[in-house]
Amino acid sequence: MIPLIAISGEPTEIEKSLQQLRGIFDVQLLSLDELSLATPGEYTLVDIEFKNALHIVKVREWLRRKPSHAKVVFVIDRASRLEEAQAGAIGATCTIHRPIDAKNLLAKLWGDFSKLIGEPQEFPGRKGAPGVVAAVDSLQDIFSTACLGAPLNAAAIETAGDCVVAELEAQGLDGWIDAVRTHHSQTYQHCLLVTGLAAAFGQHLGVCRADRNRLSAAGMLHDIGKARIPVAILEKPGPLDKDELAIMRKHPEHGLSALTTVPSLQPQMLDIVVHHHEYLDGSGYPHGLSSSEIGDLVRIITIADVFGALIERRSYKPPLTGHAAYQILCDMGPKLDRDLVREFRFASEYVSAIAA
Fold it and tell me: pTM for the whole thing?
C-alpha cells in the first residue's frame, strides 16, 4: 500500500477520518512529539493548531526534509483565509476543509480523475462508435473505483469488452485508432489504444470470441494502478523527470493492490496488471521476471502496450508511423516474444494507413 503520514495534535480524531482510506494507504499516525520517528515521504496530511507557534515551528522544520515532488495537505477551517495563508507558509501544497472528506482528500493528493473523462465535445472520436463509448465509460468506472478503493464491477467490464470486440469487427482497427487518438487525456488515449490493439491482435491470431473479450478487458484493466498516480504526472505535457518516473513505475503494484479485493476477477487479469512491464530477458519491472515466468496473455498486452505508447498523440511529440513503431518492437529483440512480434506486423499496416 501507499504510505501516508498523518500528523496531528490529536491523532485519535484524525484516525477516525482516515478509516475508509486504510485499504489504499498505509497510514502512519504521528503526534507532534513523534516527528523524529519518520522521514517525510510522498504524501503527508497535517492537522495542527495554527494558534500554537510551537506546532508551526515543529512541522515547518520537519517538512524542510520532504521530497521536492511530495504532496502535503493541511486541514484548515472552511472560512479561515488566515489558516490558508499560514499553511502555505509552513509547507502545504494544498489544503482541505474540516471535516475531512475521503474523496476530496484523494483528489487533493492525486488530482481529480473525473476531469480525465472530459466533455463529449472534447472527444469527437466517440461519435457513432458505441464500442469506443462503452470502453470510455468502463475506464471511467475503473479509475474512479480504483482511486477510492471500491470494488470493481467485473460484469460491466466484461460487457464493455464485448462492445469493443464488436466495434473492431464492424469498423476495423484503423477506425478504432483514428477515433481514440482524438481523446484529450493521455491516460485514456493510451488505455483505449492498448484495448483495441490487444483485441484486434486476438482477432488476427484467430482466438475465440471469449478470448478476444478477455484481451479487451485486459487492455482496459492493465493500467488501473495509474488511478493511484497523481494526475499531474499522468498528464504532464512533457517527458517525466527521474523522480516522476520512479513514481510512475509503481503503477503495476498499485494496480495489483487495487484488484486483490475483486473475487470474481480471473487470475490472468491480476498477472497482466502487475506484470505487463516485464520483459523476457529479465530487464523489466517490478519483479524482473523472465522467459517462462511470463504468460502468453501478458506477452500480448506488453507488445500492445509498447506499440500503443509509440503511436499515441502527445502534446510534446508526434505519433510514430505504424512501420516505425513496429521496427522498434523488432529492435527490442529478446525483450519480447519474437513469434508474437512477427504476427503483430498486421497492426503496423492499419496504423500506417491513418494520417498522423
Answer: 0.86
What is the H or E stretch that residue 21 is in? none
Whether 32 and 6 have beta carbons less than 8 Å apart is answered as no
SS3 call for 45: strand
| Topology given in CATH for the domain delimited by 114-352 | Hypothetical protein af1432 (1.10.3210)
CATH level 3 topology of 2-110 = Rossmann fold (3.40.50)
Fold match flag (2-110 vs 114-352): no
Q: Domain spans of the chain?
A: 2-110, 114-352
189 CB neighbour count, 10 Å cutoff: 20
pLDDT (mean) for 39-49: 92
- Scored b (16 or more CB within 10 A) or e, 139-165 reads bebbbbbbbbbeebbbeebbebbbbbb
Give backbone dihedrals phi and psi of 296, rounded to 5 degrees, phi first: -65, -45
C-beta neighbour count of 314 within 10 angstroms: 15
What is the rounded distance in angstroms from the CA atom of residue 333 to the CA atom of residue 174? 26
Structural contact between residues 248 and 233, judged by C-beta atoms closer than 8 angstroms: yes
CA triple 250-151-234, angle to 5 deg:
35
pLDDT tens for residues 252-306?
999 998 887 677 788 889 999 999 999 999 999 999 999 999 999 999 999 999 9
> Has residue 245 got a pLDDT over 80?
yes
Distance set, CA 238 to CA 117, 184, 245, 250, 348 (Å): 20, 15, 12, 19, 25
pLDDT of 63? 95
Q: Which pLDDT score is estimated for 356?
A: 54
What CA–CA distance (Å, rounded) separates 42 from 285? 21
- The helix or strand, by DSSP H or E, that contains position 97, with its residue range, turns out to be strand 94-97
